[in-house]
Records
---
Amino acid sequence: MENPQSPITNSQFPITILGIDPGFAIVGYGVIEKDLRGNLKPIDYGVITTHAKLSFASRISQIHNELKGLIEKYKPNIMAVEELFFYKNVKTAIEVGQARGVIILTGIQAGLSIKEFTPLQIKQAVASYGRAEKRQVQQMVKTLLNLKEIPRPDDAADALAVAICSANSNNLFGDFSL
Protein backbone atom coordinates (compact mmCIF):
# COMPACT_ATOMS: atom_id res chain seq x y z
CA MET A 1 0.00 0.00 0.00
CA GLU A 2 1.55 3.26 -1.07
CA ASN A 3 0.84 6.75 0.13
CA PRO A 4 1.32 8.89 -2.99
CA GLN A 5 1.82 12.01 -0.87
CA SER A 6 5.26 10.92 0.29
CA PRO A 7 7.57 10.22 -2.68
CA ILE A 8 11.15 9.54 -1.66
CA THR A 9 13.96 11.41 -3.40
CA ASN A 10 17.75 11.62 -3.10
CA SER A 11 17.35 14.79 -1.05
CA GLN A 12 15.57 12.79 1.66
CA PHE A 13 18.56 10.59 2.53
CA PRO A 14 19.13 9.28 5.00
CA ILE A 15 15.78 7.48 4.88
CA THR A 16 14.24 6.85 8.29
CA ILE A 17 12.19 3.67 8.61
CA LEU A 18 9.87 2.81 11.47
CA GLY A 19 9.40 -0.96 11.70
CA ILE A 20 6.38 -2.30 13.57
CA ASP A 21 5.69 -5.74 15.03
CA PRO A 22 1.92 -5.38 15.59
CA GLY A 23 0.05 -6.54 18.63
CA PHE A 24 -2.39 -5.15 21.17
CA ALA A 25 -0.70 -6.16 24.43
CA ILE A 26 2.79 -5.42 23.09
CA VAL A 27 3.67 -3.52 19.92
CA GLY A 28 7.32 -3.69 18.96
CA TYR A 29 8.93 -0.75 17.22
CA GLY A 30 12.33 -0.20 15.69
CA VAL A 31 13.68 2.93 14.02
CA ILE A 32 16.61 2.73 11.60
CA GLU A 33 18.24 4.97 9.02
CA LYS A 34 19.50 3.97 5.60
CA ASP A 35 22.04 6.20 3.87
CA LEU A 36 22.73 6.62 0.16
CA ARG A 37 25.37 3.87 0.32
CA GLY A 38 22.90 1.42 1.83
CA ASN A 39 24.38 1.47 5.32
CA LEU A 40 21.91 0.85 8.13
CA LYS A 41 22.05 2.67 11.46
CA PRO A 42 19.91 1.87 14.50
CA ILE A 43 18.18 4.90 16.00
CA ASP A 44 15.86 3.46 18.65
CA TYR A 45 13.80 0.41 19.49
CA GLY A 46 11.40 -0.71 22.17
CA VAL A 47 7.80 -1.62 22.83
CA ILE A 48 4.45 -0.03 23.46
CA THR A 49 2.82 -2.05 26.24
CA THR A 50 -0.86 -1.87 27.11
CA HIS A 51 -2.30 -3.15 30.36
CA ALA A 52 -4.65 -6.15 30.19
CA LYS A 53 -7.08 -4.55 32.66
CA LEU A 54 -7.81 -1.65 30.27
CA SER A 55 -10.69 -1.90 27.83
CA PHE A 56 -9.75 -2.89 24.29
CA ALA A 57 -10.74 0.59 23.08
CA SER A 58 -8.41 2.17 25.64
CA ARG A 59 -5.60 -0.13 24.60
CA ILE A 60 -5.82 0.68 20.89
CA SER A 61 -6.17 4.37 21.74
CA GLN A 62 -2.95 4.12 23.76
CA ILE A 63 -1.22 2.39 20.83
CA HIS A 64 -2.37 5.17 18.50
CA ASN A 65 -1.22 7.95 20.82
CA GLU A 66 2.19 6.43 21.62
CA LEU A 67 2.84 5.56 17.98
CA LYS A 68 1.87 9.08 16.95
CA GLY A 69 4.43 10.34 19.49
CA LEU A 70 7.14 8.11 18.02
CA ILE A 71 6.33 9.38 14.52
CA GLU A 72 6.52 12.98 15.70
CA LYS A 73 9.84 12.31 17.48
CA TYR A 74 11.67 10.41 14.70
CA LYS A 75 9.90 11.74 11.60
CA PRO A 76 10.21 8.53 9.55
CA ASN A 77 9.70 8.47 5.78
CA ILE A 78 8.39 4.90 5.82
CA MET A 79 6.41 2.72 8.19
CA ALA A 80 7.01 -0.99 7.64
CA VAL A 81 4.48 -3.32 9.26
CA GLU A 82 4.50 -7.09 9.58
CA GLU A 83 1.46 -8.75 8.05
CA LEU A 84 -0.59 -11.13 10.15
CA PHE A 85 0.26 -14.71 9.39
CA PHE A 86 -1.44 -17.21 11.65
CA TYR A 87 -2.99 -17.27 15.08
CA LYS A 88 -4.39 -20.34 16.80
CA ASN A 89 -6.72 -18.17 18.88
CA VAL A 90 -9.35 -16.45 16.72
CA LYS A 91 -10.11 -13.80 19.37
CA THR A 92 -6.41 -12.87 19.53
CA ALA A 93 -6.17 -12.73 15.73
CA ILE A 94 -9.13 -10.36 15.54
CA GLU A 95 -7.75 -8.10 18.27
CA VAL A 96 -4.27 -8.01 16.70
CA GLY A 97 -5.90 -7.30 13.32
CA GLN A 98 -7.81 -4.38 14.78
CA ALA A 99 -4.68 -3.01 16.45
CA ARG A 100 -2.78 -3.43 13.18
CA GLY A 101 -5.46 -1.38 11.44
CA VAL A 102 -5.02 1.41 13.98
CA ILE A 103 -1.23 1.22 13.49
CA ILE A 104 -1.53 1.52 9.70
CA LEU A 105 -4.09 4.33 9.97
CA THR A 106 -1.78 6.23 12.33
CA GLY A 107 0.99 6.00 9.73
CA ILE A 108 -1.29 7.07 6.89
CA GLN A 109 -2.57 10.04 8.89
CA ALA A 110 1.06 11.09 9.41
CA GLY A 111 1.64 10.96 5.64
CA LEU A 112 4.02 8.01 5.76
CA SER A 113 4.64 5.54 2.98
CA ILE A 114 3.32 2.21 4.32
CA LYS A 115 5.08 -1.06 3.46
CA GLU A 116 3.78 -4.46 4.51
CA PHE A 117 5.81 -7.66 4.71
CA THR A 118 5.03 -11.28 5.54
CA PRO A 119 7.07 -13.13 8.17
CA LEU A 120 8.57 -15.19 5.32
CA GLN A 121 9.72 -12.04 3.48
CA ILE A 122 11.21 -10.62 6.69
CA LYS A 123 13.15 -13.79 7.48
CA GLN A 124 14.38 -14.00 3.89
CA ALA A 125 15.55 -10.37 3.89
CA VAL A 126 17.27 -10.51 7.28
CA ALA A 127 18.59 -14.08 7.54
CA SER A 128 18.64 -15.05 3.82
CA TYR A 129 16.40 -17.99 4.67
CA GLY A 130 12.61 -17.79 4.80
CA ARG A 131 12.33 -20.56 7.38
CA ALA A 132 14.97 -19.16 9.73
CA GLU A 133 14.42 -19.66 13.44
CA LYS A 134 13.57 -16.64 15.59
CA ARG A 135 17.01 -16.74 17.26
CA GLN A 136 18.77 -16.70 13.85
CA VAL A 137 16.80 -13.63 12.79
CA GLN A 138 17.55 -11.88 16.08
CA GLN A 139 21.27 -12.64 15.72
CA MET A 140 21.25 -11.21 12.19
CA VAL A 141 19.46 -8.06 13.41
CA LYS A 142 22.27 -7.65 15.95
CA THR A 143 24.92 -8.20 13.28
CA LEU A 144 23.35 -6.06 10.53
CA LEU A 145 22.85 -3.11 12.88
CA ASN A 146 26.21 -3.61 14.64
CA LEU A 147 24.57 -3.85 18.06
CA LYS A 148 26.40 -5.14 21.15
CA GLU A 149 23.59 -7.54 22.00
CA ILE A 150 20.33 -8.88 20.64
CA PRO A 151 17.60 -6.29 21.19
CA ARG A 152 15.11 -7.08 23.95
CA PRO A 153 12.28 -7.75 24.24
CA ASP A 154 11.71 -10.04 21.25
CA ASP A 155 9.01 -7.73 19.89
CA ALA A 156 11.56 -4.91 19.52
CA ALA A 157 14.00 -7.21 17.72
CA ASP A 158 11.17 -8.33 15.43
CA ALA A 159 10.28 -4.71 14.66
CA LEU A 160 13.91 -3.95 13.76
CA ALA A 161 13.82 -6.98 11.44
CA VAL A 162 10.74 -5.52 9.73
CA ALA A 163 12.54 -2.19 9.28
CA ILE A 164 15.63 -3.96 7.86
CA CYS A 165 13.42 -5.90 5.46
CA SER A 166 11.90 -2.65 4.22
CA ALA A 167 15.31 -0.99 3.90
CA ASN A 168 16.57 -3.88 1.77
CA SER A 169 13.42 -4.42 -0.28
CA ASN A 170 13.28 -3.76 -3.99
CA ASN A 171 10.24 -1.55 -3.52
CA LEU A 172 11.75 0.77 -0.90
CA PHE A 173 11.09 3.67 -3.22
CA GLY A 174 7.85 2.41 -4.71
CA ASP A 175 7.51 3.91 -8.19
CA PHE A 176 10.30 6.39 -7.51
CA SER A 177 13.87 5.58 -8.48
CA LEU A 178 17.17 7.02 -7.31
---
Amino acid sequence: MNPRGAVFPPELIELMKSVLDDATATLPESQRTSAVKAEMASTILACAAKGERNPAALKSHALTAAHVPCYSHDILPERRAV
Protein backbone atom coordinates (compact mmCIF):
# COMPACT_ATOMS: atom_id res chain seq x y z
CA MET A 1 0.00 0.00 0.00
CA ASN A 2 1.26 3.44 -0.86
CA PRO A 3 1.37 5.70 2.23
CA ARG A 4 0.11 8.59 0.07
CA GLY A 5 -3.58 8.90 0.59
CA ALA A 6 -3.53 6.56 3.58
CA VAL A 7 -5.71 7.60 6.49
CA PHE A 8 -4.38 6.88 9.96
CA PRO A 9 -6.42 7.06 13.18
CA PRO A 10 -5.18 9.51 15.85
CA GLU A 11 -3.88 6.70 18.08
CA LEU A 12 -1.67 5.40 15.28
CA ILE A 13 -0.39 8.87 14.49
CA GLU A 14 0.62 9.25 18.15
CA LEU A 15 2.31 5.82 18.05
CA MET A 16 4.24 6.74 14.89
CA LYS A 17 5.30 10.08 16.40
CA SER A 18 6.46 8.33 19.56
CA VAL A 19 8.44 5.78 17.53
CA LEU A 20 10.06 8.55 15.47
CA ASP A 21 10.99 10.48 18.62
CA ASP A 22 12.39 7.32 20.23
CA ALA A 23 14.38 6.37 17.13
CA THR A 24 15.72 9.91 16.78
CA ALA A 25 16.82 9.94 20.41
CA THR A 26 18.99 6.87 19.81
CA LEU A 27 20.95 8.62 17.05
CA PRO A 28 24.18 10.48 17.71
CA GLU A 29 23.60 14.24 17.72
CA SER A 30 25.45 14.60 14.41
CA GLN A 31 22.94 12.29 12.68
CA ARG A 32 19.79 14.02 13.95
CA THR A 33 19.34 15.96 10.74
CA SER A 34 16.04 16.84 9.13
CA ALA A 35 16.93 14.62 6.16
CA VAL A 36 17.52 11.58 8.39
CA LYS A 37 14.34 12.25 10.37
CA ALA A 38 12.37 12.61 7.13
CA GLU A 39 13.73 9.29 5.87
CA MET A 40 12.82 7.57 9.13
CA ALA A 41 9.35 9.15 9.14
CA SER A 42 8.75 8.03 5.57
CA THR A 43 9.74 4.48 6.48
CA ILE A 44 7.49 4.47 9.54
CA LEU A 45 4.58 5.71 7.43
CA ALA A 46 5.19 3.08 4.76
CA CYS A 47 5.38 0.27 7.32
CA ALA A 48 2.26 1.48 9.12
CA ALA A 49 0.43 1.68 5.80
CA LYS A 50 1.30 -2.01 5.30
CA GLY A 51 -0.21 -2.83 8.70
CA GLU A 52 2.79 -2.83 11.03
CA ARG A 53 1.80 -1.68 14.52
CA ASN A 54 4.60 -3.04 16.67
CA PRO A 55 6.64 -0.08 18.00
CA ALA A 56 9.87 -2.08 18.18
CA ALA A 57 9.50 -3.24 14.59
CA LEU A 58 8.67 0.27 13.38
CA LYS A 59 11.71 1.64 15.21
CA SER A 60 13.94 -1.06 13.74
CA HIS A 61 12.75 -0.27 10.22
CA ALA A 62 13.23 3.46 10.81
CA LEU A 63 16.78 3.02 12.06
CA THR A 64 17.60 0.70 9.17
CA ALA A 65 16.37 3.39 6.77
CA ALA A 66 18.66 5.85 8.55
CA HIS A 67 21.53 3.37 8.06
CA VAL A 68 21.91 2.82 11.78
CA PRO A 69 22.71 -0.77 12.73
CA CYS A 70 20.18 -2.54 14.92
CA TYR A 71 21.60 -4.98 17.40
CA SER A 72 20.16 -8.34 18.35
CA HIS A 73 18.87 -7.08 21.71
CA ASP A 74 16.73 -4.57 19.75
CA ILE A 75 15.17 -7.28 17.58
CA LEU A 76 12.04 -9.05 18.72
CA PRO A 77 12.71 -12.69 19.66
CA GLU A 78 10.30 -14.00 17.00
CA ARG A 79 12.22 -12.09 14.31
CA ARG A 80 15.70 -13.28 15.32
CA ALA A 81 17.50 -15.81 13.19
CA VAL A 82 18.65 -18.77 15.21
